[in-house]
Structures are given as structure tokens and as C-alpha cells.
Design brief:
The protein has about 725 residues and is α+β, with helices and mostly antiparallel strands. It is built from 28 helices and 21 strands. The protein is about 50% helix and about 15% strand. Strands 1, 2, 3, 4, 5 and 6 form a six-stranded mixed sheet that branches. Bound molecules: manganese (II) ion (MN). Manganese (II) ion binds next to loops.
Length: about 725
């Protein structure tokens, strides 16, 4: 492990700030913060016995080295005061202002986040939540510095605690540092965590690297000399440094991939820093000239920056003894962004000039770099950068805790009801109320990221119908409906009947119970419901949304009652003239209106039969349609059934309705639509609904040229990911 003094005191902090050469620091405020923290922590000690105040001063040193501002340094000095001493946040606000108070409040809140390592998803949620919670990205940076210092002084902690913290670092904090582009913290957190998680593996690599320390130093020196020699006359201000890569990164490549340390490319890394982007490419040319490049190892992150803003050219080459090493080429601006990531923006704001490795070169370049960054900051405010990062992490989700410490991710504006059903269906069914952060909240409370929400349940309780409208997630709604469907059939029937009667009355559709029964038989042609009560029950528990089917019911009502049975006006669509367009020949009738029945949508090739309607012309059914009696002579008016057959080669489009059962997923409907439009299929209607078993049913009505065409369409649709069954209705 790198040699870092584990504790740094206030004098060292002052030293760092002085060496920075910046006069932007409010030294009086920083000293006040230090005195206040020192007095508040009193004679508290670290587990190791060291005075507690040396922890906050050390964290402040890390923050200062990253170039953050006065308030961040004060925040670091005071970060444990509210948590670990009787001092209240108000006191901090009075003494050091609202900004410092907000930073400390943020760090304190984040520290309280319980962490369980149950699954990767959980870690991902915590990462997102941390970002979402920190209105100010400096909160996260202070927290990272706090973690880092705790890891530097972790040796005196019990074994279990060291491991727990290390897992947390690997899963949560190092990825955040990576995302923010703060490589220094990321690598040190990883290396220190690895040391506790796999001490043997860590030591193995450390030993292997130590073994030939002198040899490695010689190697890097020789590489540096060769590059310097070839660039000194053509490229100005070339700064070269060489290093061995972080133990964790070597570990991932050797132990996890079971490779020998001698076999991997990336043990050595040489970094070349130049003034301009064209110089980067010039250096690359020189490097490829001197050393043999390994194919497919060149990466241009200058023209294609990584998501965390990282830019550099990477290439891996072999020296004349065939030892591989990686070369990273970048400008100073890219260098600072790579080392400090998002923190670099604060650094430049302050006009900080010192970098221990860069020395004079940095101070020469700093004005130029500063100007570049300032230009950038003018167009892109630093808070916007923070906001952009949060956007990446899903602005539209909220992350809340269960009292057990699980992080649950929910859509924005979700309520405790949604959370209860997300935890478990039974928790939802038995919910009677909810507490957020220990206080009872209304059931429609919109949950916010970071809240701890406890669902209060009672064994004998059951859901409330009104919840369906209150909760936000489809899954909670459907679980509530399911419960009503199963548990309360009688009530559902009563409720459903009331709803239907109310709505019918509103629409001026007046039917007594007997008429209603007839009407129901009429509209229930597809036999979706066995009885009228089933229909009422479905309306009652919300399985049918009445408003969706009302237009159809009303149309049917008007056909049957409003216009009188014997005196029906011919409706415009979908009636087609025989011969002219229908493609159907009706025996014994030359000039007759033909319509294709909606119940079975016959297609050319199907065996069909006609039914002479009253005033509707002849409606064509499939012979196998359930509405066609198996034995025509058994039907009430057998004379109404007439033979019909298809004209050949009609070249006409026929309407067909398909029911597609598929695994419910986003984009399903889009995929169906795209596939159909690829085939130039006209779509009349398309809708989908989710089923209780997590599947979705898509119903689509399309035009096809006939049975063979339809078969082709079905086969193409079957190829769509997730589609399980396609039925023709
Ligand atoms: Mn701390």
C-alpha cells in the first residue's frame, strides 16, 4: 500500500492550503470550524485511541488536496459533529452558514443509510439513491473522503467490520467514485478493501510486484528515456510518468482470470501529458514508432470520451524485450479531469495551481487550463453537471427504505400502498396504514428518496377499493383488483350492477333486469362471461373498466332498442357491396349487402356461411363460428342461413383480429407495430392489457389478403421476442 500518513492534523491542512497558492480560502472560517469541531469532539477518541479530531482534520486534508472550496473543507472538519456530539444542526447553521449546514446534514443522512449486501441490485439502488439524495455533489465527495480515511485507519477494527465496510466500498462507494471520475479515491478504496477481502491474493500480487522493484524502476526509466529522446525536438513540454497499476486492477486480471502476473499487459502504465490535443496524436505516432503496438489495444477516448468525462489515448505496446505496457496520452486538462473528476471543476474555480507530481509544468499550464475550464463552466454550471449525473441515475425513480434496510425502487409519486404491494402481496392486503421516518402519514403520501417507510399491517385486514385509484403502480392496482375478484364475489356483483346501472342511466339507456339479461346475451357474443353476474363481478372488482366498453355497448343498445328491431338503418361501415368488393358469392342472391361478422372475422379460404339479417344484409360467418348452429335445422329460423363461398383471387383486404399472448415487457407493442408495418399491414385497432400472471395480451385488428397471407403474418409475429401464443379471434 502506498505510504500515506494515516492521520493528518490541522497544521498539515493549513500547509496543503498554503501550498495550493490559492488565496480563495477563507482561512478564518476554516480555523473557526476546526476549533469548533475540536471543542465539540472534546476528549472523544477513535477506536485506536487516537484523539477523534484527527479524523475530521484528515478528511479535510483529502478534500483540500482535491481542491474543494472553503465550505467543503469546513464541512469535512465538522462532518461528524452533528452525528457524534450533542451539537445541533441549527448551531452549525448559525455559526457557519446554510451551505456548510446543508453539507453536514447531507453527510449525516447518508451515513445513516443501512446497508445489506444481499444482492447486486440492492447495491445499485443504494448507489443511485446516494446520488439522488445529495442535492450537492460535494456531499458525496466529503462522504467518499470520510470512507477513504476510515479505510486508511481500519486495521484496529474487528475482522467482521473490516470485511463489511470493504464489501460496501467495492459495491457502492468505489463505483460512485468511478462514476464521478475521482480515480484517486476509487483506486485507493479498492486496494484497501481488497486487502481485507482477500489478504492472501493481495499479498501475492504485492509480493510479486515488490520482488523486482528495482527492475521495474529501470524498465520504466528506460521507456521514459526512449520517448523523451524521440519527442524532445518535435513536441514541446512532454511530461512522462510511469507507474505500476493499482493492485486491485492487477488482481482482477490475474487472480480472477487465473492469469500469471507475467502474462498480463497492464502491470505497467506509462503516462504522457502534453499541451494540446494534436500533440497527443503526435506522441501516439512516436510511441507506435518506437514500440510494437499490440493489435486491438488502441482506444481513443479523446474523440469518444467515457461517460465520466474521462479522456485519453490508450495503447498497449511491447518494448524490445517484448514486455508489454500500456501508454496513456492526454492533455493537462484531461489529466485533472481523470484524477479528480467532477471535483476538478471546483479545483479550477479556485485557481489551484499545485500538483505534487506535475511540479512547475503544472503552474505553467494552469492559467491555460483554468481558462478552458472557466469557459466550460460559463456554459455549464457546476450544479448542472451534478444534475446531469443525477439524471443518469434515474430522476424518475424514488428509493425508499424498509425498516429492515432494504432499498426499494419505485416510480416517482408512488404511495405507501405501492411499497406495501412491492414488498409482498400479503403485506399490501393487510395494510392499515404507514409510517414515514417514524411518523404516521396519509395513505396517499408521495414517497421521497431516502425516506424510511414502515407499513403497518393487521392480520384480519383487507384492501380498500379506493386504493385502486390512489396507488400509482400497475402491479399494486392489479393485485388489489385480484383480491376483490377472489374474495368478494357477492359484493362485486352488487357493486358492479350499481356501476353499470348508473352508467346506463347516465347514457340514457334504460333497461329493466329482464331486458338487461337479453341485452347481455347479445353483447356477450364472444362468450367472455358465463353469466351476467360474472360480468357485474368483473366490473365490480375493476377487471373491466366500463368506460372502455361503453361505446360498444351503446352502439349495440341503439341497434337493438333505440331504432326499433324492424327498422334498422344500414350502418356505414363495415358493410361492403357483394361482387363490387366483398369477394363473396351468396347463393340465390345477386345483389345483396354482405358484411363480415365481427365474432369470427372469416377470411378467404375459410369455410363460410351467410345469415340473412333483418335489414343488415347477409352477414358472413365461419362455418365453425360458435354463433352458427352445428345443425342448421335446429336453429329457430333455418331459412335465414344461406350458403356462401369465396370468389377466387379477390385481391381484397380482409379484416382479421389476432390475440397475442406475450411476456409483458416494455416495447412489446412497439415491436408488434413495427413488425406489422414492415410487412405493410394496415392496422385498424391495436391495444394491449396486462394479465394477472405477468403476461400481456395484445389484440390487433389488421387487413390481410387471405388465409395464407395471415399465416405468414402470424409466423413473422411469432418471431418477436417474448411472444408465446397467437390466436385468431
Ligand atoms: Mn467520519
Amino acid at each position: 500500500m502506498k505510504n500515506i500518513a494515516h492521520y493528518q492534523d490541522f497544521t498539515e491542512l493549513v500547509g496543503i492550503l498554503e501550498r495550493s497558492g490559492s488565496d480563495a480560502y477563507d482561512m478564518k472560517k476554516i480555523e473557526d470550524a476546526y476549533r469548533f469541531a475540536e471543542a465539540s469532539h472534546g476528549d472523544q477518541r477513535r477506536v485506536s485511541g487516537i484523539p477523534y479530531i484527527l479524523h475530521p482534520t484528515s478528511v479535510a486534508c483529502i478534500i483540500a488536496e482535491m481542491g474543494l472550496d472553503t465550505d467543503s473543507i469546513c464541512g469535512a472538519l465538522l462532518h461528524d459533529v452533528v452525528e457524534d456530539t450533542p451539537v445541533m444542526l441549527d448551531e452549525i447553521r448559525k455559526r457557519f452558514g446554510n451551505d456548510v449546514a446543508k453539507l453536514i446534514d447531507g453527510v449525516t443522512k447518508i451515513s445513516k443509510i443501512p446497508y445489506s449486501t444481499r444482492e447486486e441490485q440492492q447495491a445499485e439502488n443504494i448507489r443511485k439513491m446516494l446520488i439522488a439524495m445529495a442535492d450537492d455533489i460535494r456531499v458525496i465527495i466529503i462522504k467518499l473522503a470520510d470512507r477513504l480515511h476510515n479505510m486508511r485507519t481500519m486495521d484496529c477494527m474487528p475482522e467482521q467490520k473490516r470485511r463489511d465496510k470493504s464489501v460496501e466500498n467495492m459495491q457502492v462507494y468505489a463505483p460512485i467514485a468511478h462514476r464521478l471520475g475521482i480515480k484517486r479515491i476509487k483506486e485507493e478504496l479498492e486496494d484497501r478493501s481488497l486487502q481485507y477481502l482477500d489478504p492472501v491474493g493481495y499479498k501475492e500480487i504485492e509480493d510479486a510486484l515488490m520482488l523486482n522493484e528495482e527492475g521495474r524502476a529501470d524498465f520504466i526509466r528506460s521507456i521514459k528515456e526512449q520517448i523523451t529522446e524521440k519527442t524532445k525536438d518535435t513536441i514541446p513540454n512532454v511530461y512522462i510518468s510511469g507507474r505500476v497499476k493499482s493492485i486491485n486492477s492487477i488482481y482482477r486480471k490475474t487472480i480472477m482470470r487465473n492469469q500469471s502476473i507475467d502474462d498480463i499487459f497492464d502491470v505497467f502504465a506509462v503516462r504522457v501529458i502534453v499541451d494540446t490535443v494534436p500533440d497527443c496524436y503526435n506522441v501516439l505516432g512516436v510511441v507506435h514508432d518506437i514500440f510494437k503496438p499490440i493489435p486491438n489495444r488502441f482506444k481513443d477516448y479523446i474523440s469518444m470520451p467515457k461517460q465520466n468525462m474521462y479522456q485519453s489515448l490508450h495503447t498497449t505496446v511491447l518494448d524490445n524485450k517484448a514486455i508489454p505496457f500500456e501508454v496513456q496520452i492526454r492533455t493537462w486538462e484531461m489529466h485533472y479531469t481523470a484524477e479528480y473528476g467532477i471535483a476538478a471543476h471546483w479545483k479550477y474555480k479556485l485557481g489551484m495551481a499545485s500538483d505534487p507530481k506535475g511540479g512547475d509544468r503544472v503552474s505553467k499550464n494552469i492559467e491555460k487550463v483554468k481558462q478552458m475550464i472557466l469557459d466550460q463552466l460559463e456554459t455549464e454550471d457546476s450544479t448542472d453537471i451534478a444534475r446531469n449525473i443525477r439524471n443518469d441515475f434515474g430522476e424518475n425513480d424514488v428509493y425508499v427504505f424498509t425498516p429492515k434496510g432494504d432499498v426499494m425502487s419505485l416510480p416517482r409519486d408512488s404511495t405507501p400502498i405501492d411499497l406495501a404491494y412491492l414488498i409482498h402481496t400479503q403485506v399490501g392486503h393487510r395494510m392499515v396504514g404507514a409510517k414515514v421516518n417514524g411518523k404516521i402519514v396519509p395513505i396517499d403520501h408521495a414517497l421521497k428518496t431516502g425516506e424510511i417507510c414502515e407499513i403497518i399491517t393487521q392480520k384480519e385486514e383487507h384492501p380498500n377499493r379506493a386504493w385502486i385509484d390512489i396507488c400509482k403502480t400497475a402491479s399494486a392496482k392489479s393485485k388489489i383488483r385480484q383480491w376483490f375478484k377472489r374474495e368478494k364475489r357477492d359484493e362485486n356483483i352488487v357493486e358492479g350492477k350499481q356501476i353499470v346501472e348508473r352508467e346506463f342511466k347516465r347514457q340514457g339507456m334504460n333497461l329493466n333486469d329482464e331486458e338487461m339479461a337479453d341485452f347481455f346475451v347479445n353483447v356477450n357474443m364472444k362468450k367472455q362471461y358465463n353469466t351476467l353476474d360474472d360480468f357485474y363481478a368483473a366490473v365490480g372488482y375493476g377487471g373491466i373498466q366500463l368506460w372502455k366498453i361503453m361505446p360498444r355497448l351503446k352502439e349495440e343498445y341503439q341497434k337493438t332498442y333505440a331504432s326499433g328491431i324492424e327498422n334498422i338503418k344500414v350502418p356505414p361501415a363495415p358493410v361492403r357491396r357483394k361482387r363490387a368488393s366483398s369477394g363473396v358469392i351468396i347463393e340465390g342472391n345477386d345483389d345483396v349487402l354482405v358484411k363480415f361478422s365481427n365474432c369470427c372475422n372469416p377470411l378467404p379460404g375459410d369455410e363460410i356461411i351467410g345469415y340473412i339479417t333483418r335489414g343488415y344484409g347477409v352477414s358472413i360467418h365461419k362455418r365453425s363460428c360458435t354463433n352458427v348452429p352445428a345443425n342448421l335445422n335446429d336453429s329457430e329460423e333455418p331459412e335465414r342461413w344461406v350458403s356462401a363461398h369465396w370468389e377466387s383471387d379477390t385481391g381484397e383486404a380482409f379484416r382479421s383480429t389476432l390475440q397475442i399472448i406475450a411476456a409483458d415487457r416494455t416495447g412489446l407493442l412497439a415491436d408488434v407495430t413495427i413488425q406489422l408495418s414492415n410487412m405493410h399491414i394496415f392496422i385498424h385497432t391495436l391495444n394491449s392489457r396486462e394479465l394477472k400472471n405477468g403476461k400481456a395480451v395484445v389484440t390487433v385488428t389488421i387487413d390481410v389478403a387471405g388465409r395464407d397471407h395471415l399465416r405468414g403474418v402470424i409466423s413473422r409475429l411469432s418471431d418477436i421476442n417474448g411472444i408465446e401464443e397467437i390466436k385468431r379471434l
